[in-house]
Amino acid sequence: MELKEVAGNLLCYPFMLKSRTDAYDGRGNFAVMSESSVSAAAKALANRPLYAERWAPFKLKLAVMAVRTKDGSIAFPTVETIHENNICKFVYAPPRGVSSTICQKAQDLAKKAVSTLQGKGVYGVEISSFPTTRCSSINRPSPT
């Protein structure tokens, strides 16, 4: 199945096309806003294994570095990340306008998330908050 078919039939526009390799801090990503930008996305990320994510119009993104060891998991303090053009541009510690209770819940969630993984190491866990709902979403924990 071609990328245009996958995008048009399964994801809808906009969506984020991401490289599985050589990608970090928003690099290796391409925001596909419409069918007209699919070719540019495929060219920009050519010769890499790719995956796509539904568009997530978050209003706030928190991040927690969590460590998984043979004995359990620990989490470092929660930070706020500010993104420009899908790349992390600024990090605020502590997060601005976020209560210590929410920061602790983010740390607890990050520890719980990495405790489900088989691999040991340090993981970056992103938690997004959306403007139209009280719900949050955890992004995939990424090994560092």
CATH topology-level name of the largest domain: D-amino Acid Aminotransferase, Chain A, domain 1
Strand content: 35-45%
Q: SSE order, as H and E?
A: HEEHEEEEEHEEE
CATH C-level class of the largest domain is Alpha Beta
C-alpha end-to-end distance: 32 Å
Low-pLDDT stretches: none
The pLDDT mean sits at 84
Q: What's the number of extended β-strand segments?
A: 10
- Class by SSE composition: alpha+beta
Principal-axis shape: globular
Please tally the helical runs, counting DSSP H or I stretches of 4 or more residues. Answer: 3
Question: What descriptive keywords fit this protein?
Answer:
single chain; 144 residues; alpha+beta; Dna Ligase, domain 1; D-amino Acid Aminotransferase, Chain A, domain 1; 2 domains; 7-stranded antiparallel sheet; 3-stranded antiparallel sheet; 10 strands; 38% strand; globular
How does this structure look, described?
Helices cover 22% and strands 38% of the residues. The mean pLDDT is 84. It folds into 2 domains: 3-54, Dna Ligase, domain 1 (2-Layer Sandwich), CATH 3.30.1490.20; 60-143, D-amino Acid Aminotransferase, Chain A, domain 1 (2-Layer Sandwich). It has helices spanning 3-11, 38-44, 100-115; strands at 15-19, 29-32, 50-54, 60-69, 72-75, 79-84, 87-92, 121-129, 136-138, 142-143. Strands 4, 5, 6, 7, 8, 9 and 10 form a 7-stranded antiparallel sheet that branches. Strands 2-1-3 form a 3-stranded antiparallel sheet, with helices on one face. The longest helix has 16 residues, at 100-115. By secondary structure, the protein is of the alpha+beta class.
